[in-house]
Design goal:
Order of helices and strands: EHEHEHEHEHH
CATH class: Alpha Beta
Strand order of the largest sheet: 3-2-1-4-5
Oligomer: single chain
Bound molecules: adenosine-5'-diphosphate
């Protein structure tokens, strides 16, 4: 990579839905990268009950970052390293909330390194108020009628209300 090449970072995940914790990680990434591709995974790596389709998740992320042309959400399936290579990116971003995230994240980063030695994974830690936040908690609380407006942006909130009623 020439020194003048723009740094493209890929932030992969399920984002079902994107939370303010995810947004925090995305903003931190933009302090070290020129562009950020939020890559919404088609096949969840672990079994989870999905609330939004991949297309809905991509659309809402693009709405959240609509004003920032450095950020783009795309759906992807297959190996992350192949997706990264296709975009000319060598940088994967993940978030670390707690020690409980660490083992899985470490395994994935090392497997990706095995698959393509040119890939690097960097981790960001969110603001402490988001360190307990997860998409699954948001789904759970919202489906029980709880107020999640502190944890997600207005475009996500609107879609949650539409999908779950209330
Ligand atoms: P996955 O199913 O791949 O874990 P997620 O959408 O749940 O996808 O998370 C994507 C990434 O964002 C993961 O690295 C996860 O640790 C991180 N993440 C999720 N929620 C938060 C949060 N509240 N603060 C910081 N990072 C987070």
């Amino acid at each position: 990579m020439s020194p003048a090449s723009p740094i493209v970072a890929i932030y992969p995940g399920s984002f079902d839905p994107m939370t303010k914790g995810h947004e925090d990680i995305a903003h931190r990434t933009l302090s070290v990268a020129d562009r950020l591709v939020v890559a919404v995974a088609h096949d969840a790596t672990h079994r989870k009950q999905n609330l939004f389709t991949v297309e809905e998740r991509v659309a809402v992320i693009n709405e959240i970052f609509g004003d920032d042309e450095r950020v783009e959400a795309l759906a992807f399936e297959g190996l992350l390293v192949d997706f990264a290579r296709g975009l000319g990116s060598h940088l994967v971003v993940r978030g670390l909330r707690a020690i409980s995230d660490f083992e899985y994240e470490m395994q994935m980063a090392q497997m990706n390194q095995e698959l393509w030695p040119e890939i690097e994974t960097i981790f960001f830690v969110p603001e402490v108020e988001y360190s307990f936040l997860s998409s699954s908690l948001v789904r759970q609380v919202a489906s029980l009628g709880g107020d999640v407006s502190r944890f997600v942006s207005p475009p996500v909130l609107a879609r949650l209300r539409k999908k779950l009623g209330g």
